[in-house]
Design brief:
This is Cinnamoyl-CoA reductase-like. There is one protein chain. By secondary structure, the chain is α/β, with parallel strands linked by helices. Helix content is 43%, strand content 16%. The chain has a 7-stranded parallel sheet, with helices on both faces. Strands 7-8-10 form a 3-stranded mixed sheet. Helix 2 packs across helix 11, helix 4 packs across helix 5 and helix 5 runs parallel beside helix 7.
């Protein structure tokens, strides 16, 4: 274990490590928040002013009983409000997601928010690492995806293709991640990015319906090209936290549990997302075609070797 890891372990032992989750009221952000509290961290839950949702209500109730939880209201376009939430934190978990869905205007807002958040981190004395939550949709969309053998962390979605197909969610995740990387490198910040598959988990259809549906735009093409994948939100949260705790992590990490490449698996996925996605009555699997898997996650596999088997 190197000196940095020992220093971090010492902080954790004394219960003094504070981290920030922004936006903690997103579906993924909330699960990261719970995972951090379970591990004994002090957490600044930064909540965007989007109107109170069910998750935000849960966080406010948690604040009443959790001594290590403090809630902050932020506007990602208001630089100073971000700085207040980051005060004395050694890490930021950045989980930007639009509760109102995605269009061309929302793409611009998410990019500007990502830039503000990373710049705010650069202006603090305490932030040691940013764990940026992104999406596989920032890597899988292009004209010639069917001709690509492997899609891994070096891959990026083509902006022009996303605009042409109106894949606004994918475009937002691509541009915001690229903007965050450019600024983090310019400011010499330590950043790691987790590119998640379609997020599944408890109450996901109630608490994360819009992002789920926008992720699935073009699902048939993803399926046929072997790049439709999903991830359990609990596992995803663990990976985010592990990426922070492991000082050797760097770059992007594709994060998914399974690639959906058979008709039977697509039916199971659709059933898990009911009533967001509905199947015709008496639906039966008829085709036996299996599509080639193109997504590779070697970096993730190496990282999660440290996770306990559940």
């Amino acid at each position: 274990m190197n000196k940095d890891s020992l220093d971090l372990a010492a902080k954790m032992d004394h219960g003094k490590t504070s981290v920030c989750v922004l936006d903690a009221s997103t579906y993924v952000g909330f699960w990261i928040l719970k995972g951090l509290l379970n591990r004994g961290y002090f957490v600044h839950a930064a909540i965007r002013k989007n109107g109170e949702n069910e998750i935000e209500k849960q966080i406010k109730e948690m604040e009443k009983v959790e001594e290590k939880l403090e809630v902050f209201h932020v506007d990602v376009l208001d630089y100073q409000s971000i700085l207040v939430a980051l005060k004395d934190c050694c890490a930021l978990f950045c989980c930007l997601d639009s509760p109102d869905g995605y269009d061309d205007k929302m793409v611009d807002l998410e990019v500007r928010g990502a830039i503000n958040v990373v710049e705010a981190c650069a202006q603090t004395d305490s932030i040691e690492k940013i764990v940026f939550s992104s999406s596989l949709t920032a890597a899988i969309w292009r004209e010639d995806i069917s001709s690509v053998k492997d899609v891994d962390e070096r891959s990026w979605s083509n902006q022009d293709f996303c605009r042409k197909m109106k894949l606004w969610y994918a475009l937002a995740k691509t541009l915001s991640e690229q903007a965050a990387w450019a600024l983090a490198m310019d400011r010499m910040l330590c950043m790691v990015c987790i590119n998640a598959g379609l997020v599944l988990g408890p109450a996901v259809t109630q608490q994360n319906p819009r992002s789920t549906m926008f992720y699935l735009k073009g699902a048939a093409q993803m399926y046929e090209n072997g790049v439709l994948a999903f991830v359990d939100v609990s596992f995803l949260a663990d990976v985010h936290i592990l990426a922070f705790e492991d000082r050797s992590t760097s770059g992007r990490y594709f994060c998914f549990n399974q690639i959906v490449n058979t008709q039977e698996e697509t039916v199971k996925l659709a059933k898990s997302l009911s009533p967001l996605i509905s199947l015709p009555t008496r639906y039966e699997c008829q085709e036996s075609e299996v599509y080639a898997e193109r997504l590779k996650a070697k970096k993730l596999n190496k990282l999660v070797e440290a996770l306990p088997v559940s």
